[in-house]
Write a structure and sequence with these properties.
The complex is a heterodimer of chains A (about 325) and B (about 280). With about 325 residues, chain A is of the alpha/beta class. Chain A has 2 domains: about 170 residues, Rossmann fold (3-Layer(aba) Sandwich); about 130 residues, 3-Layer(aba) Sandwich (Rossmann fold), CATH 3.40.50. Helices cover about 40% and strands about 20% of the residues of chain A. Chain A is built from 12 helices and 14 strands. In chain A, strand 13, helix 10 and strand 14 form a beta-alpha-beta unit. In chain B, helix 1 crosses helix 3 and helix 2 crosses helix 8. Chain B has 9 helices and 7 strands. Chain B is about 40% helix and about 10% strand. Chain B has one domain: Thiamin diphosphate (ThDP)-binding fold, Pyr/PP domains (Rossmann fold, 3-Layer(aba) Sandwich). Chain B has about 280 residues and is an alpha/beta fold. Chain B is globular and about 50 Å long. The chains are: A alpha/beta (about 325), B alpha/beta (about 280).
């Protein structure tokens, strides 16, 4: 079985910050806006190096989204930065009308997504953002799994014309995607090959899915782990190809069960290739304070739960 | 350069267009449209340095106008068509199926002149802030204009944008408030009193001008003054006193024609008060 080694432990938001700084050097059209979270979003390097292209808007996310749309009128590629909750729920109508419906080339970059922001608790732990953003026509939705992939994705979306929601997180997590691996928007990454069950994972859950596949391997269960970094547009061909081989699936995401990647994949399969699907997600609850790893365990979002869901899916095969 | 009399003639035709469009689709917002007609006429036929055709989404080296109170789309569409952005005949499709003239302005249908959708209120001034900053980055000396309704100032986002523009000295921005003191549910004093708007904008760091938005000479003079106040370290706002429904006697002095279409008889009565100067579509 193919293995992925931990290169180091890094936060995904730092991958965003590094790539933004590099984009600043290479692409004069890239501008950035931040709502009083420059340090948290790791945007300092860009802000310090390119002060004329950095817009500190204060704690005023609605104005930030509108300004980003306005900056595209004049040819700029704006990257907005704040926490996922304030990047989506707080400004949904602004994104809907001024960015998505207006077809503006804005990159909405969101840190501190999911449960793993930890101790700040449910006010800040958005678990609904993937659902909200994937419902907007024309919106590309990307949820990256580690530092290297976040860096690759940040650079890739600058080259893509159209509105994008890029979701990443706060804690230091295993960095395991090779730096030179090609990142293509809308193209899923098959990380392991397997014949018994497909595990479709996104964001921080990808590493947990790899760990689950190792646990399953010890039980002679071969799991195919596929990193769905682009939730919309979904790589339908990759999903079909895998389940046609394995006959069942698990979807793992740091998100509510309602509205997440699980719904996207099960809708696709229900229409064209029905197979048993199990879901590892937050089950219609708000989060709470705690350490990231404690929260993932409590809400059933870890390798053990993914492996259990895989066995359940296999057991449901006809 | 058109004379005041010529601009007033254009405004009369635009008002006819508004009544006919709203009647034609049996829906739309005539009140605010009629009130803002003189301003839009002055802007698009005299004040703005703009190029209707070919339409440049980025408005490079052009003045840029953004409509935040998107419900006055009949006035906006008429002005855009009459100033050459798209064929006047297309006004007949307003609010009808498969039209580029959506109920509220939209980008997706590709109507020249529209750079951002509006309709959900309170968003335009933020767009204007961004577009004005883009002009500065581009060393583009032209101005960004943004029209808002007064009822729209109830929205919190407007004050986020006002705070930003004042604090960050967005001095290539001219905001205009259609100060007709009416909104859907009644007078602004009844629904949500706005207080001393002049003092409020001053406190946020704006240069504040006031004008009678239905007096073409005053409109031209004040827009000229506003332009000369740009580039001096503060954004500019014009409190534009208007009469909702201006030009049609039974639509004036009330908030009731905010979003109601006239019937056949009312349309005939309204059109009898508005001279056809450029030919109906």
């Amino acid at each position: 079985m193919k293995t992925f080694d931990i290169i180091n432990y890094k936060d995904t938001r730092s991958g965003f910050g590094e790539a933004l700084y590099e984009l600043g050097k290479t692409n004069p059209k890239v501008v950035a806006l931040c709502a009083d979270l420059t340090g948290s979003l790791k945007m300092n390097a860009f802000a310090d190096a390119f002060p004329e292209r950095f817009f500190q808007v204060g704690i005023a996310e609605a104005n930030m989204m509108g300004m980003a749309a306005g900056l595209t009128v004049g040819g700029y590629i704006p990257f907005t930065g704040t926490f996922a909750n304030f990047s989506t729920a707080r400004v949904y109508d602004q994104i809907r009308q001024s960015i998505a419906y207006s077809q503006k080339n804005v990159k909405i970059c969101a840190s501190h997504s999911g449960l793993t922001l930890g101790e700040d608790g449910a006010t800040h732990q958005t678990l609904e953002d993937i659902g909200m953003m994937k419902m907007l026509p024309g919106m590309t939705v990307i949820n990256t799994c580690d530092f290297n992939q976040t860096k690759q994705a940040t650079k890739a979306i600058a080259e893509y014309e159209g509105p994008v929601y890029l979701r990443f997180g706060r804690p230091k997590v295993p960095n395991f995607i090779p730096e030179d691996l090609e990142f293509t928007i809308g193209k899923a990454l098959q990380l392991t090959e397997g014949s018994d069950v497909s595990i479709f994972a996104t964001g921080h859950m990808v590493w947990h899915a790899l760990e689950a596949s190792r646990m399953l391997d010890a039980m002679n269960i071969r799991a195919e782990v596929i990193d769905i970094h682009t939730i919309k547009p979904l790589d339908e061909a990759a999903v079909f190809a895998s389940v046609q081989k394995t006959g069942c699936a698990v979807v793992a995401e740091e998100h509510e069960i309602n509205g997440g990647l699980g719904e996207s994949i099960s809708r696709l399969l229900a229409g064209a290739y029905p197979v048993p699907v199990e879901f590892v997600a937050v089950m219609d609850e708000f989060g709470q304070s705690g350490k990231p790893e404690e929260l993932l365990k409590l809400y059933g979002l870890d390798a053990g739960h993914i492996a259990g869901a895989a066995r359940k899916a296999i057991g449901r095969k006809r | 350069m058109p004379t005041v009399a010529e601009l007033q003639q254009i405004a009369s035709q635009v008002r006819r267009d508004i009544i006919r469009m709203v009647h034609g689709s049996a829906s739309g917002h005539p009140g605010g449209s009629l009130g803002c007609t003189d301003l839009l006429t002055a802007l698009f036929f005299e004040v703005l340095d703009h190029q209707p055709n070919p339409f440049d989404m980025d408005a490079k080296n052009q003045d840029l106008f953004l409509l935040s109170n998107g419900h006055i789309s009949p006035a906006y569409y008429s002005i855009l068509a009459r100033s050459g952005y798209f064929p006047v005949s297309e006004l007949a499709t307003f609010r009808k199926i498969n039209s580029r003239l959506q109920g509220h302005p939209a980008v997706m249908e590709g109507l020249p002149g529209i750079r951002v959708a509006s309709g959900s209120l309170g968003q335009g001034l933020s767009i204007a802030n961004g577009a004005a900053q883009a002009k500065k980055l581009n060393n583009d000396p032209k101005q960004v204009y943004c029209l808002m309704g007064d009822g729209e100032l109830d929205e919190g986002q407007v004050w986020e944008a006002v705070t930003y523009a004042g604090a960050k000295k967005v001095d290539n921005l001219i905001a205009i408030v259609d100060y007709n003191k009416k909104q859907i549910d009644g007078s602004t004093d009844d629904v949500m009193p706005l207080g001393d708007l002049n003092a409020k904008f001053k406190a946020f760091g704006f240069q504040v001008l006031e004008m009678n938005g239905n007096d073409m000479e005053d409109v031209l003079k004040t827009l000229g003054n506003a332009k000369s106040e740009t580039g001096k370290g503060t954004p500019v706002v014009i409190l534009m006193h208007t009469e909702m429904g201006m030009g049609v006697d039974f639509m004036m002095g009330t908030h009731k024609w905010h979003g109601v279409a006239p019937d056949d008889e009312q349309t005939e009565k309204a059109l009898a008060q508005l001279e056809e100067t450029l030919g109906d579509y």
